[in-house]
Amino acid sequence: MVIKGALIPSWVDELIKEQKESGFLSKEPMEVKGSNVTPYDLTLRLWETIPKNRDKGPFASGLKVIVKGERNGKQVTYTADIVGRMAPGTGLPASIAALMLDAGEVKVKGVVAPEGCIDPKKFLAALLQRGARIHQTETVKSMLHV
């Protein structure tokens, strides 16, 4: 399984990558001009100085799940996408999981991937009920084609 993500506008991805590569996301304190500074804390402060209306374009996020397998002797690829504002792909799933946990619907204890402890049918129903739009496709190919 491969999980990939990106932030729009693209400069955000680039800036985070550069900050990671240059050590600005380190939580190890270092001495700078006689003072101890944690690079991560400095980075958070710097992010606060970015003008709020820097980008006039849409703010968006995307989530894509691709499952590949075999069914009845054929290759099957199933894709589900959520694209749009940040809430459907980030905030809503977290809030739904928290509500399910509070309601006692999550029985597994410890560190577990969401797919190992949350009922997907209940979760997806709650996500759709809150306005998320999920685009789904299924592609079936004969295994005789190369």
Overview of this protein structure:
With 146 residues, the chain is α+β, with helices and mostly antiparallel strands. Helices cover 33% and strands 25% of the residues. The protein contains five helices and five strands; from the N terminus they run αββαββαααβ. The strands form two sheets. A three-stranded antiparallel sheet has the order 3-4-5. Strand 3 (61-71) and strand 4 form a beta hairpin. It starts with 9 loop residues before the first helix and ends with a strand. The model has no long low-confidence stretch (mean pLDDT 83).
SSE string: HEEHEEHHHE
The general outline is extended
Query: C-alpha Rg, in Å?
Result: 21 Å
Strand order of the largest sheet: 3-4-5
Secondary structure class reads alpha+beta
Question: How many strand segments?
Answer: 5
Q: Report on the biggest sheet.
A: 3 strands, antiparallel
DSSP strand content: 15-25%
Helical content stands at 25-40%
End-to-end gap? 22 Å
* Overall mean pLDDT: 83
Low-confidence stretches: none
Number of helices: 5
Structure in a nutshell:
The protein has 146 residues and is of the alpha+beta class. 33% of the residues lie in helices and 25% in strands. The mean pLDDT is 83.
